[in-house]
Amino acid sequence: MLKKLSCIALMCSPLTHANLIALENHELTQATGQGGADLSWTLSLNHEYAENLELSNISKFNGGTKPTEVYYRYSKNCADNNVLCRLAIAPNNHEDNNGNKKWLVFKQIQGTIQIDKFSLDGTTIINHKNDPQTAMQLKFYDDKPLKIRNLGFATMAIETGTGQGANEGYANSEVYTKFQGRNYQQDGSYNLVQQDVPLFDQGAEKGFMGLNIHGNMHMSGNVKIFSYNCTGSAASRC
Questions:
Q1: Coil, strand, or helix at residue 65?
Q2: CB distance 141 to 118 below 8 Å
Q3: CA 12, CA 65: separation in Å to the nearest integer?
Q4: Which of UniProt's keywords are assigned here (predicted)?
Q5: First to last CA, the chain
Q6: What DSSP string describes 119-181?
């Protein structure tokens, strides 16, 4: 969209002309007008929508209220190589006893957030000195919710490695297959045996917590932004 606007501006610039007139402070205080902008915003990470720039929305409707096709599924690149779709943080460069760096790794991180419409314009408030004052206003609409789609990560883990690159902790990609269980005998003793993990964790990357958020957040109202110290007079800068 920015590229298109830039091209239009370049095409029109030789054909436009404007006479600019300097205004005094008292003339500026008497100037009034209307304006504003209706905006939309989308953030998508590691989803089909993020990879395909030809898609105009995160889902497709055919006249109904429910989407017939969605584009906030996990992307093919992430499905083929989960190491490419993770966030790793090394807080304060912590190391283990062997000098290997510790990483807090969010594995298979993904998400899409979209709001179809919110407005930015100006308004007038009555400040703490009981004077009118200009403010910037952000307005949100109840029928234009913030859409949150598959936002989160599959698992979070603390990893360490033995070197750089593929041997570093953030690249560890071990999955759950077996675990060491206990086979108890009648006398109370037990033997350690290898057992399959439950189906829920079979093949999943190792970690201790996952998160997934999917839903709508409805907002109705406005936020006014202004300077508390502004007096609203012609001599003040707000």
A1: coil
A2: yes
A3: 40
A4: Signal
A5: 32
A6: EEEEEEEE-TTS-EEEEEEEEE-TTS-EEEEEEEEEEEEEEE-SSSGGGSGGG---B--EEEE
